[in-house]
Design goal:
The complex is a heterodimer of chains A (155) and B (355). Chain A is built from 8 helices and 7 strands. Chain A is of the alpha+beta class and 155 residues long. Chain B has 355 residues and is α/β, with parallel strands linked by helices. Helices cover 41% and strands 15% of the residues of chain B. Chain B has helices spanning 32-44, 63-72, 86-94, 97-102, 115-122, 126-139, 158-168, 182-186, 193-210, 231-234, 276-296, 302-305, 308-315, 329-335, 348-354; strands at 3-7, 49-53, 76-81, 103-109, 144-150, 172-177, 214-218, 236-239, 244-246, 267-270. Chain B has a 10-stranded mixed β-sheet with strand order 7-6-5-4-3-2-1-8-9-10. The chains are: A alpha+beta (155), B alpha/beta (355). The A-B interface holds A 14, 16, 18, 21-23, 25, 27, 30-32, 34 and B 87, 91, 114, 128, 131-132, 135-136, 138-140, 163-164, 167-169.
Chain lengths: 155, 355
């Protein structure tokens, strides 16, 4: 079985971006979110990809656009970002190829972001999840900025 | 405050099934120099607001120059658009700080609460296009409003549409009843008199008080007075894409005859040859005659009378075609006066509204 992580946006999301900012509108919940440039870039990548994309493909596309030295942190950042999307009901993070029979990461018992990061950072992120809107969340933990944030906290 | 409504073109990227326009018309654009002359004259007359419509106004070849001409003259403006290429073509222009200061609102057309219903009416991809455009306006703090054309197709969705509009953060939401043309009557797209009554009651009694977005009923649905107020002709002077001054934008180029626009009753002047001032004088002469004729009208049925746009359509000779459709519920309403005339202010309509 293919154990690669796949991500896809939930049905009913309308995403768009302009000049370094983006928006997400969830038609089912009628909620409106603003995103930073990186999050907008990731969401644009997933736009109209009904089957989703492999995390490795997304990573490669990010590496083409952004200069990122620490790939491990990038991995962590991506998993965190898409996990947060999932928590807000905006995305799905799955093992498999996005088709039938996929296993939700949340219920699979395999590693999630909580396994990728140390407890000290987890605690910080939990506070952010509870206390902030996605607009702030995405700004703070989207890929590159998350990598930076993790480094600061760890130090 | 008086304003100018200018159809910059009859061209449109969409092929909406509920469009009242004759889609076989040659695609034309109001010449830019004529546009500039007209807004110069309007400024001299004290008009400070211009609404750009179409067609789809953003298809205008010199779209940036059009907006620039308004801003240079210190005119406030609004745009009515279906959201076509908003991010690429219009948003960058509106984000210019000086232009943004002069913009009053971008009005988007939204006729369904999801892609299924909206795209059925306006074409594939149109729902996503307009939601994206509205979201970008919100992101960039550009004031926007929504206009919904109510037809037999979306009559059940008005609450859902209003909720969506509210969630999008629109400043205003207007409902306008679809006006009858031969094709729309034939295909049963227009509301029946009963539906129109019920929806008027629902929108005014339930939606307006409960939604945080300001909701308007354009065309004054359900009015029960001879003296109705209609912004489309009482406060707005309407220029069509050929440069003709027309009594009401909803009358512009809606005809089942082969007569040219200049031969129709709503025609007020050709601004290529005449001044805006002369046309506006004729506008007010026709308005006086129109208001008098409405006050004297003891022939129309109460249903027709309480739907001002329909009354106007009949007044301007645009409803004769409906006789060809004896099954249409409007036929009885339009022409019942020929067998049983009564003065329309008997109170029967207001009673039916309350029930």
């Amino acid at each position: 079985m293919n154990k690669e992580l796949w991500v896809k946006c939930k049905h009913g999301l309308i995403t768009t971006s302009f000049d370094g900012e983006g928006t997400v509108f969830h038609l089912d919940t009628r909620k409106y979110y603003m995103t930073n440039e990186t999050a907008a870039f990731l969401l644009e990548l997933l736009k109209d990809k009904h089957e989703g994309l492999a995390l490795s493909s997304i990573k490669n596309m990010l590496l083409e656009v952004y200069q990122i030295n620490d790939e491990k942190r990038l991995d962590d950042g991506l998993v965190s970002f898409f996990h947060d999307l999932e928590q807000h009901g905006l995305g799905l993070l799955q093992f498999g190829n996005g088709g039938k029979g996929d296993i939700s990461v949340r219920n699979s018992g395999v590693k999630t972001k909580r396994d990728y990061i140390n407890p000290k950072i987890e605690s910080e992120l939990d506070t952010m999840l509870v206390g902030r809107q996605l607009v702030d969340l995405m700004t703070d933990i989207s890929t590159a900025s998350l990598a930076q944030g993790v480094a600061e906290i760890a130090e | 405050m008086h304003q100018l409504g200018i159809e910059t073109t009859n061209d449109c990227n969409r092929n909406c099934i509920h469009c009242v326009r004759d889609k076989k018309e040659k695609r034309e654009y109001l010449p830019l120099d004529l546009f500039q002359r007209i807004i110069d004259q309007s400024y001299d007359l004290g008009i400070r607001y211009v609404s750009l419509t179409g067609g789809e106004p953003t298809l205008y070849p010199d779209w940036a120059e059009l907006l620039c001409a308004l801003v240079e003259r210190g005119l406030k403006f609004g745009v009515v658009t279906n959201g076509w290429k908003f991010k690429e073509k219009t948003l960058p222009l509106l984000l210019n700080p000086i232009t943004k200061r002069h913009l009053v609102t971008v009005c988007f057309s939204l006729d369904g609460f999801n892609a299924d219903s909206h795209d059925f009416l306006r074409g594939e991809g149109s729902f996503r296009e307009v939601i994206e455009a509205a979201n970008l306006c919100r992101l960039k703090r550009i004031p926007f409003s929504i206009k919904t054309v109510v037809s037999s197709i979306n009559k059940e969705e008005l609450t859902e549409i209003a909720l969506l509009v509210s969630a999008l953060g629109a400043r205003e939401h207007s409902f306008i009843s679809l006006l009858p043309t031969p094709r729309l009557v034939k295909e049963n797209f227009i509301l029946t008199p009963k539906e129109s009554r019920i929806l008027y009651s629902f929108i005014s009694g339930s939606l307006i008080p409960s939604m945080k977005t300001r909701i308007n009923l354009e065309g004054s649905w359900g009015i029960n007075s001879a003296l109705f107020s209609c912004n489309a002709y009482q406060q707005t002077y309407n220029v069509d894409y050929l440069g003709n001054l027309i009594f009401c934008c909803n009358l512009s180029h809606v005809s089942d005859t082969d007569k040219p626009a200049t031969a129709l009753k709503e025609f007020l002047g050709d601004l290529r040859e005449e001044s805006l001032r002369e046309g506006i004088i004729r506008h007010h002469e026709l308005l006086a005659q129109f208001t008098g004729d409405r006050l004297k009208d003891t022939q129309s049925s109460s249903e027709l009378f309480s739907n001002p746009c329909y009354w106007c359509y009949k007044y301007f000779g645009k409803l004769e075609f409906i006789r060809k459709y004896p099954d249409s519920p409007w036929v009885k309403e339009m022409f019942c006066s020929e067998v049983n005339s009564h003065f329309p202010f008997s109170g029967t309509f207001s009673v039916s509204l309350k029930t």
